[in-house]
UniProtKB/TrEMBL annotation:
<dbReference type="InterPro" id="IPR036249">
    <property type="entry name" value="Thioredoxin-like_sf"/>
</dbReference>
<dbReference type="InterPro" id="IPR036282">
    <property type="entry name" value="Glutathione-S-Trfase_C_sf"/>
</dbReference>
<feature type="domain" description="GST C-terminal">
    <location>
        <begin position="92"/>
        <end position="216"/>
    </location>
</feature>
<dbReference type="InterPro" id="IPR004045">
    <property type="entry name" value="Glutathione_S-Trfase_N"/>
</dbReference>
<dbReference type="InterPro" id="IPR004046">
    <property type="entry name" value="GST_C"/>
</dbReference>
<dbReference type="Pfam" id="PF13409">
    <property type="entry name" value="GST_N_2"/>
</dbReference>
<comment type="similarity">
    <text>Belongs to the GST superfamily.</text>
</comment>
<feature type="domain" description="GST N-terminal">
    <location>
        <begin position="3"/>
        <end position="85"/>
    </location>
</feature>
<dbReference type="Pfam" id="PF00043">
    <property type="entry name" value="GST_C"/>
</dbReference>
<dbReference type="InterPro" id="IPR040079">
    <property type="entry name" value="Glutathione_S-Trfase"/>
</dbReference>
<protein>
    <submittedName>
        <fullName>Glutathione S-transferase rho</fullName>
    </submittedName>
</protein>
<dbReference type="InterPro" id="IPR010987">
    <property type="entry name" value="Glutathione-S-Trfase_C-like"/>
</dbReference>
């Protein structure tokens, strides 16, 4: 089964990492994969464009099915391989509702995180304003406080005691926050969530290789 799958990915990319974690959770090791370098613009190569015409990573093909959106790929894999590996959608309506809420709510977290981390990259120098930077930081701070509250009310994972699809999809973003210098003392619940899951086999096996060889950044240290 896994031999019919191809994943083109970039190290440290949360969308790529989600699919990698999902494949591990569903015991689908042995898929075809290729690590590409963003800094070399390899995500714009014809090899990627043949699968993902947007020229973005991940580029994921499962048999004849192309699923380049990480949420779509993870849902597809869970539905196609329900009886294989770990079950990631709980039966309990309460846990299932919470799982769906958190996983889709994470889009807002990701956007506010990107607004701060990539501001200088996205906004031309002549259009940058200190007031916009401050607004973005305040918006991210408010968002992180929400997630602190959520995690203070759960046992260890986002939807309760069990590791679910929400964790597959949200953990890479939380790890990204700490990679960019988020203060664990200021956000203890997020830090606890991060440290409790970072050694999970599926996460440890797919840890971004560039994170192991390059120093972390401090972009978010004042948030």
């Amino acid at each position: 089964m896994a031999k019919d799958m191809t994943l083109l990915w970039g190290s440290g990319s949360p969308p790529c990492w989600r699919i990698q974690i999902m494949l591990e959770e569903k015991q689908l090791q042995g898929y075809n994969q290729k690590l590409l370098a963003f800094e070399k613009m390899e995500h714009k190569s014809q090899e990627v464009l043949d699968i993902n015409p947007r020229g973005q990573l991940p580029a994921f093909k499962c048999g004849n099915h192309i699923l380049n959106e990480s949420y779509a790929a993870c849902f597809f894999l869970e539905n196609q391989y329900k009886s294989q590996g770990n079950k990631l959608i709980p039966d309990s309506p309460d846990a299932q509702a919470l799982m769906y809420q958190r996983m889709f709510e994470a889009f807002t977290l990701g956007q506010k995180m990107a607004d701060v981390i990539y501001y200088n990259y996205k906004v031309p120098e002549e259009e940058r304003h200190d007031s916009a930077v401050q607004r973005n930081k305040e918006a991210l701070t408010a968002e992180l406080k929400l997630w602190e509250g959520y995690l203070n009310k759960t046992d260890c994972c986002l939807a309760g005691k069990e590791f679910t699809l929400a964790d597959v999809l949200v953990f890479p973003g939380v790890a990204y926050l700490f990679r960019f210098g988020l203060c664990s003392e200021r956000y203890p619940a997020l830090a606890k969530y991060y440290t409790s899951l970072k050694d999970r086999p599926s996460i440890k096996a797919t840890w971004p290789p560039t994170w192991q060889s390059t120093p972390a950044q401090d972009t978010l240290k004042t948030i």
